[in-house]
Sequence to fold (86 residues):
Amino acid sequence: VKWRLQESDLAKHARQQGAMLAAAARLVELRGRLVYSTCSIEAVENEGVVKAFLDRHRGFSLARSAVAVPWVDGHDGAAAFLLQRD
Fold:
């Protein structure tokens, strides 16, 4: 049996990650910071989640971001986003 990632799996993961990010954001104080990080290079799980979060949570802004891809950085792919409560 060959395992295949379905497009709906990525959307499901992105929704779950967005919910976790929103839950964590409730605990961030004014001028506090929150890091959202994944071991994925999929835009839907990275930039897509962060964009959707920022669209819904006007009190936060993106301070920094980094995405590492295996064919450039020589190691597993990952992404990190530093969000700040304004």
Residues 8 and 53 are 20 Å apart (CA to CA). The first strand starts at residue 33 and ends at 38. The first helix runs from residue 7 to 25.
